[in-house]
Amino acid sequence: MPQKKQQTQAKTVMAQILLFQPTIEASDEKVQNFLDSVQKLPKGIRHLLSASAGENQSLKHKGFTHGVILLFEDATSLHEAMQQPAYLKLSHTLQGISDHTIMFEQSVVIDVPVIEIPSPQQKQATNQKSKNAAPGQRKRNATIAPPSPELSEWQQLARAIRQKRVTHIDQRLVRIVCDQLSVDEQEVIPSASLVEDLNADSLDLVELFMTFEEVFKLEIPDDHLELLMEIGAIQAYLELQGVLGEENKM
């Protein structure tokens, strides 16, 4: 039986297109790591529809050998995303591997799937049909119901962080936050928000998380950053990663 063709509709979105020239010092591995990190951006930035990156195939690239294409819901979403830690961290990385960049933004039209939502009448008809089915048929219908979706890795991490009861902040974490944000130790408490209580701006957040990565020898994926906006959450996260705890004291 032929499958029903998925219906689509045109949607106008905002595209941000970036071309860059890698520096002579930037190794192929560093450039590839940057391109790979772009692919993970949709998990870390709200309203980002898709992200792609790769080599510029044009024969007239004039040294701009690589590019990035980001699609956002609209212009407002794009400009909000440019202030989010995941985006700023990526921009900081790009500055370290490129000599020159060209960026432009424009509206584009893409095809998106149409999700059909059954009307109340359709739902009622389906329920009535199920009630009228023979008992054996109803049982068979029940067995083919799709299973409940399992929690994603991100959701599992978010739940694990929430379930951690953090009452004490490791002194190494306190020192890093105090040094990076110029705050007093008394302010670095589990419930403290980096932005609302410790007044960290976007650049502060990027530098803070990069310091965590350097000091604790780990990589914090971009989609994890939004989970780490409070001191207690950072402590819990670093404990879950196995880099904080009695056995990891420096």
TrEMBL record:
Pathway assigned in UniProt: Lipid metabolism; fatty acid biosynthesis
Pfam families: Dabb, PP-binding
Gene that produces this protein: acpP
Post-translational modification: 4'-phosphopantetheine is transferred from CoA to a specific serine of apo-ACP by AcpS. This modification is essential for activity because fatty acids are bound in thioester linkage to the sulfhydryl of the prosthetic group.
Cytoplasm found in the keyword field: yes
Name listed for the protein in its UniProt record: Acyl carrier protein
GO biological process, one term: lipid A biosynthetic process
GO molecular function: acyl binding; acyl carrier activity
HAMAP family with a match to the protein in the record: Acyl_carrier (MF_01217)
Domain Stress-response A/B barrel: 14-112
PANTHER family in UniProt: ACYL CARRIER PROTEIN, CARRIER DOMAIN-CONTAINING PROTEIN
Annotated family: Belongs to the acyl carrier protein (ACP) family.
InterPro entries, per database record: ACP, ACP-like_sf, Dabb, Dimeric_a/b-barrel, PP-bd_ACP
Taxonomic source organism: Dictyobacter aurantiacus
Entry-annotated residues carrying O-(pantetheine 4'-phosphoryl)serine: 202
Residue ranges with Polar residues bias: 120-131
Region Disordered, residue ranges: 120-150
Keywords: Cytoplasm, Fatty acid biosynthesis, Fatty acid metabolism, Lipid biosynthesis, Lipid metabolism, Phosphopantetheine, Phosphoprotein
